[in-house]
Amino acid sequence: MTQTEDLLAPIREQINQVDQQVLELLAKRRGLTNQVAEAKIQTAKPIRDQHREQQLLVKLIKQGQKLGLDPHFITQLFHVIIEDSVLNQQALLAERANPEQSQPLNRVAFLGNKGSYSYLAAKKYFSRRAGEFLELGCQSFAEIIQKVESNQADYAVLPIENTSSGSINEVYDQLQHTSLSIIGELTHPIKHALLVADNTDTSKITTLYAHPQVFAQCSHFLAELGNVEVKPCDSTSAAMMKVAELQSPHAAAIGSEAGGNLYGLTAIKSNLANQKENHSRFIVVARKSVKVPIQVPAKTTLVMSTVQKPGALVEALLVLKDNNINMTKLESRPITGNPWEEMFYIDVEGNLQDGPMQNAIEGLRAITRYLKVLGCYPTEEVTPTKVPLAAALQD
């Protein structure tokens, strides 16, 4: 052991001890916030109180400054802690409202195998739910839906849109023809990396494997890469498996670094997406719908077709406006067998148990040819509470 190592060893041991204490305190804090959730079940108090969150952040920033900690660091740290608290409280309330959903084993169908983005999203979502996670990798969206419809799986996790490549139309088309209900959602960061099995560099790569959506999201990188053959795969995990099998310095896959590690692949380049803030939104579907507690922020997804007359879609959207309901997504897809006619998918912020949402559904049924609620589910988008920095920095 060198002299430097002799000096660092005891300091590193102290850091390890502090890290362990931090983890224990975070676990204790989560336990206390779960007790808060239990109290909110009794009082029907909303999960979030952003005024209190703001006061808490200002107080913590001031306390942190006295300890020599940067306000930006404190804010970032507690945004993550608050998000974790909110999501865990929401999951607890949802579990209490839907006791039949709690089971010792969650059989979850998703696209690809271990390491795919859908796999990572599914693991993330069910990590907050009771029961063991049983993975059921599939090779197509149709197979995923069929697994749940035939009771071979309890849930399916499906990507619905991406910030770079837009909506995933094939999933919308599958939703037209299923009786499954959307019971949840999550947004997962998509961090594309260039993965290789052999120690190589980009100049030697002649063949690139990835899912078609990934190629679309990384089109700028592909243009820079030059004359490389792109080979589409059913999933990012299939692409990684292919490169791991080839063990060639001329083959690479695009996928997540975490997924690549499962197949012994090395990332030689990161952040490949056109948009650096690249996220995919996933939906979770099941055979039965869920009840969303009124104190949990909710979304509702509808599918409808309007009558064939001028202004019919505008008239339908005015029903939402008149009931003060915010629309977050509008997507049109062709109706199979009806040329030039469209089915509209709409996401709105609202709970089916609310009076305004019930009025809106009733109003839409009266003026549309077809209307179906695909699901009402908790939203997992936790908007960070804004901190008035001037107030935080006051003595």
Automatic annotation (TrEMBL):
Q: Just give the chief location class.
A: cytoplasm
One Gene Ontology molecular-function label: prephenate dehydratase activity
Q: What is its EC number?
A: 4.2.1.51, 5.4.99.5
What subcellular locations does the record give? Answer: Cytoplasm
Q: Give the matching CDD domains.
A: ACT_CM-PDT, PBP2_Ct-PDT_like
The alphabetical list of record keywords is:
Amino-acid biosynthesis, Aromatic amino acid biosynthesis, Cytoplasm, Isomerase, Lyase, Multifunctional enzyme, Phenylalanine biosynthesis
Q: Name one Pfam family in it.
A: PDT
- Domain Prephenate dehydratase residue range list: 107-287
> Where is the Chorismate mutase domain positioned along the sequence?
2-93
Sorted alphabetically, which PROSITE patterns does this protein's record hold?
ACT (PS51671), CHORISMATE_MUT_2 (PS51168), PREPHENATE_DEHYDR_2 (PS00858), PREPHENATE_DEHYDR_3 (PS51171)
Q: Where is the ACT domain?
A: 301-378
Keyword Isomerase annotated: yes
Check the record and name the InterPro entries matching this protein.
ACT-like_dom_sf (IPR045865), ACT_dom (IPR002912), Chor_mutase/pphenate_deHydtase (IPR008242), Chorismate_II_sf (IPR036263), CM_dom_sf (IPR036979), CM_II_prokaryot (IPR002701), CM_P_1 (IPR010952), Preph_deHydtase (IPR001086)
Report the domain of life of the source organism.
Bacteria
Specify the protein name.
Answer: Bifunctional chorismate mutase/prephenate dehydratase
From which source organism is this entry?
Pseudobowmanella zhangzhouensis
Q: Which gene encodes it?
A: pheA
